[in-house]
What we know:
Mean pLDDT: 85
Number of helices: 9
Helix content: 55-70%
Shape: elongated
Number of strands: 0
Low-confidence stretches: none
Structural class: mainly alpha
Largest sheet: none
Distance between the termini: 7 Å
Oligomer: single chain
Strand content: under 5%
Amino acid sequence: MSGLSDFNQMDAAAAATLLRPCLGVDRWVGEVVQGRPYASVDDLLAVARSAAQPFTAAEIEAALAHHPRIGARAQGTSPEAGLSRSEQASLVLADDVQRRLADGNRAYERRFGRVFLIRAAGRSSEEILAELKNRLGHDDDTEDEVVAEQLRQIATVRLAGAVSA
């Protein structure tokens, strides 16, 4: 994306195509597209944070399908894979950290039946490991809320980068 002005002027289909790598939830994409034009990036991000709240279980499942395990290098050439690789680039994955992340991912998947999702951008491996351990103690409803918030955070970080380019 080449800036907020360009985003505001795109036809709806083009704008939706550019939003999908940020968060692959159709209702969210639709609400953000329908909110145009935005006076500022802050206005856009405010709508992006509140759009599609709350997410349905099916929307969360669909969004998680595009996220690799934390600590795993996303495969492929899709925009989502490229964003994931960039977001996880700062993680220091020494053998012991890699092992602990893999063990934590497996424990989380056994506990909740889905991939562990966290906004990796700006976080260290140790911060992520601590949050993973903490979230394993959540009940299902609490973790559903946390996952939805992580999706919103990831989407707004990605969107901010896209419209600031």
